Amino acid sequence: MLQLIIRYINFWLKSSNQHGVHSPFVFDLVTKCFYDKTKYASYSKLKAYRKHLLSNNNTIEVTDLGIGSHVMKSNTRYVSDMAKKAGTSLHRAKLFYRLVSYLKCNNILELGTSMGIATQAMHKGNPKAQITTIEGCPNISDFTSNTFKQFGLKNIDLLTGDFNDVTKTLTSNAYDLIYFDGNHQKEATLNYFETLLPTAHNDSVFIFDDINWSKGMVEAWETIKQHPKVTVTIDTYFWGIVFFRKEQAKEHFKIRV
Question: Are 75 and 61 spatial neighbours (Cβ–Cβ below 8 Å)?
Fold first, then answer.
């Protein structure tokens, strides 16, 4: 916990808002997407989805293929607790909605479905987008698949299995956005990044969750930033956002969101 606090203080001291950004692409992204204060009608649907999960007192027996949870030690977990403690926050769900809409993402991959909060937000950002989402735990996968049906969410392909195995079957695809949210370990994160790198095109965006979660994740993020195919990165403290735009000079930003 102390290390997280120290990392956050360091981030805050080194980060900026749009006034510290000189790249036109990143400036527009920050001002027109990150800091967009529009109260979109779809936000009510994001709230309704989270509220549904937060009020669900059923339990799920969890098979955790990653490093596990910092806050939930039992394998038998309440849906409401998972949504509250491990699910995407409403603030980030809204940011997902705006990102998918702003960047016009049509083909999306998510590693780590969980309760599907981020998935639903991305879907609402572009209901016509094809979303593939991978969940390692069969019980969570079944629950979330049924929740998607209950909320009438379409164009979502939920795959169940180990990320290492499933991602290898997807390398011939092209994705506009990939969200890496699962198995928050250095080696695993770098492995997923390298495996899925061939699926990136010039306008793709990769988003890594919890880049300050541990020393290993900090190291993984630093390695990703230095990759020769990576041009622009944005550190929001909770997310690491990666672009591959060849027309951009290599530059790293820390932005408060």
Answer: yes
Crossing angle of helices 138-150/117-125, nearest 10°?
40
User: Is residue 127 within 8 Å of 153, Cβ to Cβ?
Assistant: no
What is the per-residue pLDDT for 172?
Answer: 97
The tens digit of pLDDT for each residue in 209-239 reads: 999 989 999 999 999 999 999 999 999 999 9
- Of 50, 147, 163, the C-alpha closest to 97 is 50
> How do residues 78-107 score in pLDDT, each as one tens digit?
999 999 988 899 999 999 999 999 999 999
Q: Which tokens belong to 233?
A: 């990165």
Task: Report the phi/psi class of residue 61: left, alpha or beta, with left for phi > 0 and alpha for psi in -120 to 50.
Answer: beta
Q: DSSP for 20-87?
A: G---HHHHHHIIIIIT-----TTHHHHHHHHHHHHT---EEE----SS--SS---SEEEHHHHHHHTS
b/e 189-200 (16+ beta carbons within 10 angstroms → b): bbbbbeebbebb
Could you tell me which of 88, 177, 72 has the C-alpha nearest to residue 131? 177
The structure tokens listed for 38 are: 């529009």
Rounded CA separation 174/106 (Å): 10
3-class DSSP assignment, residue 154 = coil
Q: Which two tokens stand for residue 123?
A: 């879907």
SS3 content of the chain, % helix, strand, coil (to 5): 45, 20, 35
**SS3 for 237?**
coil
Backbone torsions φ then ψ of 37, nearest 5 degrees: -95, 5
Distances (CA, A) of 143 to 45, 57, 73: 19, 13, 20
